[in-house]
Design goal:
Length: about 180
């Protein structure tokens, strides 16, 4: 179901520009929650195909450090809004590229360079910079080929496993 964003009404009232953005979501609702009271909810059912408003909204929430924000991407809870925002910005950048796979590869390579990764031929199978950023096999940490089974877990921790570019390039299950 795309992206669903919920915030307690009492929190969002202090940020009228955030409330305005939520109200412009393709689907907007308010409901009562036992733990959080009155909630405002913006639903973006076609995320990530329609990226601009969710990207702007998540960016504002991150910059303003709005508390008690609850986000689901494809029914999976987001654990870190900053990670989600970084992934959304990366995906938005890829949309401007002639070849998204090449874009992702270049981003991945830049991270590998910055952390001085010893696995230049990517035996680990990394196709996303967020895999490299959180790689448990940084220099001196062991055999990079053992990362393949944990790549989806790494991307989930980065709140980037929703990315269409990653989904199109990820290794087949069981490899």
């Amino acid at each position: 179901m795309g992206l669903v964003l919920s915030i307690p009404r009492r929190q969002v009232s202090a940020y009228p520009d955030v409330l305005m953005l939520i109200e412009h979501a393709p689907q907007y609702a308010e409901h009562d929650d036992v733990r959080h009271g009155r909630m405002v909810q913006g639903i973006f059912p076609t995320f990530p195909c329609d990226l601009s408003l969710p990207l702007l909204l998540i960016g504002k929430l991150v910059v303003l450090e709005v508390p008690d924000v609850h986000v689901l991407v494809h029914d999976k809870p987001v654990t870190d809004l900053v990670n989600l925002w970084n992934g959304m910005r990366c995906y938005a950048g890829s949309l401007l590229a002639d070849d998204r796979a090449v874009y992702c590869s270049k981003r991945c390579h830049a991270v590998m360079e910055s952390v001085q990764c010893q696995d230049r031929d990517r035996r680990c199978g990394a196709v996303c910079q967020f895999e490299c950023i959180r790689c448990p096999h940084q220099p001196g940490a062991g055999d990079p080929s053992s990362l393949t089974r944990s790549q989806e877990k790494v991307l989930a921790q980065a709140d980037a496993d929703w990315c269409p570019n990653y989904l199109a390039q990820k290794p087949a299950q069981g490899t």
